[in-house]
């Protein structure tokens, strides 16, 4: 494990922060996000935070919910959304409302990606216009990764993946359909996410470490979309714990 971590630190140009356990990672990550948001608020009176769904970030959401930040000056949105009702078990908006927009963080300004359209393809323009109204570039983006190398909802083999990965795509979001995951999705584009002041890839478990190692090796970006972030000169840090 130590050798693997040393190899990855070299591959990631020392942008790998590894911790002995998820609790230590969560505390450090919540602290770092708080610092960046507080700095942005001091500089420009507001801050934007883009979050991913999944199971990994739930402890982080819970810790941030109780953190003393001027949340009324923080604008939060999602890196992606399953195109389901916000009260559906699969909804990332539901996850954010349930675990983050509580306690002190209940004062934050949240913009969801799901709108009234039945299909993500029909809702794409409205979603893009809505995200376009948020303060930009984003200050902090927190990404997860699946063991297929997807991030946000930029899945290998998905429809329109090339558009989603196109660094010059002028749009913030696109409707995309994974081949091997449930639900039509709305995903922020690589072009929109990569402009952020701070990009965090939040991973837990040896399976994700092994996937990260594979993603750091040669191979097409389309095979493992997280490679678009790893191979660009971006302010990206990987936070990992067992
Ligand atoms: O909507 C989603 O599912 C997420 O945005 C997705 O990109 C997630 O970050 C990864 O699938 C990792 O999920 P886990 O944290 O559950 O492994």
From TrEMBL:
GO molecular function ontology, one term from the record: 6-phosphogluconolactonase activity
Protein source organism: Spartinivicinus marinus
NCBIfam families in UniProt: pgl
Chain's role: Hydrolysis of 6-phosphogluconolactone to 6-phosphogluconate.
EC class (word): hydrolase
Enzyme Commission code(s) on record: 3.1.1.31
Pathway membership, UniProt: Carbohydrate degradation; pentose phosphate pathway; D-ribulose 5-phosphate from D-glucose 6-phosphate (oxidative stage): step 2/3
Family of this protein: Belongs to the glucosamine/galactosamine-6-phosphate isomerase family. 6-phosphogluconolactonase subfamily.
Organism superkingdom: Bacteria
PANTHER family in alphabetical order: 6-PHOSPHOGLUCONOLACTONASE
Domain Glucosamine/galactosamine-6-phosphate isomerase: 21-232
UniProt-listed GO biological process terms: carbohydrate metabolic process; pentose-phosphate shunt
Record keyword Hydrolase present: yes
SUPFAM superfamilies: NagB/RpiA/CoA transferase-like
Keywords per UniProt: Hydrolase
Gene3D superfamilies xrefs: 3.40.50.1360
Protein known as: 6-phosphogluconolactonase
Keyword match ATP-binding: no
Catalytic reaction equation(s): 6-phospho-D-glucono-1,5-lactone + H2O = 6-phospho-D-gluconate + H(+)
